[in-house]
Amino acid sequence: MKTIDQKMKSLLYYPYINLPQNDWTIRALLYYDNVNAIVPTQYFYEPEHYNPFMREAIMNELITPINPMDVLNNPYEVSLRFIEYLSARKSVIERRRSFFSNQAHIIHRDKSLSSYRQCKLHINKFDSDVFNYLMEIGLAERIDYNWYNVENKTANDLMFLLSSVIADKIQSIVATDKIDYSFSQIYAQNNDVELRNRQYKRDLILKNLIPYPKQIDLPNLRRFKEKYHDLLITFRNKVESIVLNSAISPESKMFEVTLDELKLQKGELSERMNESHLGNINFGTICGTISAGIGLFENSSVATITGLLSVIYSVCKTERPESVVDQTGLKYLALVDKRMRTR
User: Fold this and answer.
1) Confidence (pTM)
2) Fewer CB within 10 Å: C terminus or N terminus of the chain?
3) CA nearest 330: which of 230, 273, 262, 260?
């Protein structure tokens, strides 16, 4: 089980600089030890370019910015290999160039072709050779000193290649909240289609199990992960044992039954956490533990004292959900549901 956790504890997000502020990102932050994003050098010196959510997540050490020029020993190899890959696909180049050059007219005429919109790529992410090549073949144009407009599918292909190389270097899973990239499909078909199936299955499990707090408090999320890290490892091992089981495909009845069982176990665990878990610490015991301070109540009525002790007892119960014994591996999830929801 330890081996599974070591392989699956880190995620590298692509294709954008800023992770979206949505349920997918929150699930990723709660599930992985490390969430990384590819960020150009400029952003390290000018963090005001991040969106507010991304900037706060980085400040709370929930997302780690990765500079490709610092991580890769030979960043020019990415450009070289991509140029070779694209040069061997003349028909792809012609089709994409046609869409790129006539983009505004095409999108206006047919909204379904909006996937061919232009994408901005930062100059610091790649060796300059790849941008020079893309401009030569009509798939990119320079906007200003820092940015290029690149045909959408070409930009996604390029980002997937870069992300895959960096993920291999830092031992992370490559993941995105958007799966519609041609290069990733070609890569998966030629190498390991099981990788995409696993990520799809993992996302499906987490979507069904991890609640999304609409008003997330990032400092609280960081403290939560630090406090319950051991439980996170146990939960992640539970999920990965299903993800790595090729006999349980997302379309199978077995996957549906397994998911239902996980949700049932989580619900039962959450209910137990809402019960009294004080064991032998009963109401009378709590009264005894604060007897040394009873002088504080010398001018209060019996009803007031009894009422206050009842409040103390009630709060003590809510502070003890961690004492619930769990054999399912879902205790982390139940605590997420209890601790992270907006009250």
Assistant:
1) 0.77
2) C
3) 262
Neighbouring residues of 322: CB distance < 8 A, sequence distance ≥ 6: 335
Tell me if 183 sits within 8 A of 157, measured CB to CB: yes
286-301 pLDDT per residue, tens: 454 444 444 444 555 5
What contacts 137, CB < 8 A, 6 or more positions away? 86, 93, 97
pLDDT the model gives residue 319: 47
In the sheet that holds 10-13, the strands lie side by side as 63-66, 34-38, 10-13, 173-175
Q: Which two tokens stand for residue 294?
A: 């009873």
* 3 state SS of 276: coil
Contact 143, 7 (CB under 8 A): no
Residue with tokens 């997540």: 57
Strand partners, 66: 38
**Residue 27 clears pLDDT 70, i.e. is over it:** yes
Report d(CA 29, CA 11) in Å as an integer: 9
What is the distance between the alpha carbons of residues 174 and 49, in angstroms, rounded to a whole number? 24
| Average pLDDT score over the chain | 79
